[in-house]
Amino acid sequence: MTYVVSLDAVSKVYGRGQGAVAALREVSAGFTQGSFTAVMGPSGSGKSTLLHCAAGLDTPTSGSVRLGGTELAGMNETRLTELRRRRVGFVFQAFNLVSSLTVAENITLPLRLAGAGVDRAWLEEIVKRVGLAGRTGHRPAQLSGGQQQRVAIARALVTRPEVVFGDEPTGALDTMTARDVLTLLREVVSGMGQTVVMVTHDPVAASYADTVLFLADGRIVDEMTDPTSDKVAERMTRLGAWN
Ligand SMILES: Nc1ncnc2c1ncn2[C@@H]1O[C@H](COP(=O)(O)OP(=O)(O)OP(=O)(O)O)[C@@H](O)[C@H]1O
Question: Is the CB of 43 under 6 A from ligand 1?
Fold first, then answer.
C-alpha cells in the first residue's frame, strides 16, 4: 500500500525526568490518497501531537514520519518549513486569515510565501468549489465564520498539497455552518481526490470521514470505517471521553 503520509512507531515525549509526558507511544498509521480520516480521543490523548508530528510541525522523539516519499526525521527547520509550504495544507479552528488582505490574497498567500506563481485557472476552480465566487475582493471581516473557513480551506488547497490537516476545523462554527464546511471537506476528498486528516471532538464531524482513528493515552486503540455519529459517540463514551 502506498501512503501519502505514514507514521511508523512514532513516540513523542515532552519534558524530561519526573515531569516527562509521553504524548504518543509507538503510533503507526498510514493515510492513502483520497482518504478522509478523523482522529478522535479524550482530551490529552495525543490527537494534536499526532497531527503536528504528521505535518512536520513537531519532531517525534523516535520513529519515522514519511510524507510522500520523503522521510521527515533529520530534516532541518528550513527544509521542513519549505516542505510544509508546498506539500501540506492546514485548516485550523481559528481561521487564521490575514485581516488586511482580500479573500484572493489570503488564498494565494502560501504561493507567495513559497515564491511560486499563481495558476489563475486553478485559483478560479478552487474559489468556485469552496463557493466564494464573487467574494474574492472582500476582506475577512466582511465574511461570516463559515465563509472565512471556506477561505482557509481554499488557501489549504491552493498549493495542491499532498495532504490537508484540519485541527478542529469546525470547532468555532455553529451546527448548521459546521455541516456545510464538513460537506465541503467531504467534496474535496471525493471530488478532487484530496487526502484529509482531521482532529475533532465532534462525533457528527467524524461521521463525514471514511475512517476514524481513536486515540487513548498516546496510543491508537481502535479504528472505525464507515462511521456514524452514534457509533462514534458510543465508542468515545466507552473510552471515558465524556466522564
Ligand atoms: N508542548 C508541550 N509540553 C508539554 N506537554 C505537552 C505539550 N503539548 C502537549 N503536551 C501533553 O501531551 C499530552 C497530549 O497532548 P495533545 O495536545 O496532543 O492532546 P489532545 O488529544 O490533542 O488534547 P485536546 O483534545 O485537549 O486538545 C497531554 O498530556 C499534554 O498535556
Answer: yes
Residue of 16, 18, 25, 45 best suited for mutating to test ligand 1, as the one with most atoms within 8 Å of CB: 45
Complex ipTM tops 0.95: yes
Looking at residue 240, the DSSP 8-state letter turns out to be T
Q: Assign a CATH topology to domain 5-238.
A: Rossmann fold (3.40.50)
- Scanning the structure block, which residue is given the C-alpha cell 527547520? 77
Q: Where are the domains of the chain?
A: 5-238
Model pLDDT, residue 218? 97
DSSP-based three-state secondary structure for 212 = strand
pLDDT, position 72: 93
Closest protein CA for atom 29 of ligand 1? 44
- What is the average pLDDT value for the chain, to the nearest integer? 93
CA-closest residue to ligand 1 atom 16: 46
Ligand 1 lined by 41 (C-beta under 6 Å): yes
Residue 231 and residue 215: Cα distance in Å, rounded?
Answer: 16
Nine cell digits for residue 23: 504524548
Report residues of the chain scoring pLDDT below 70.
242-243
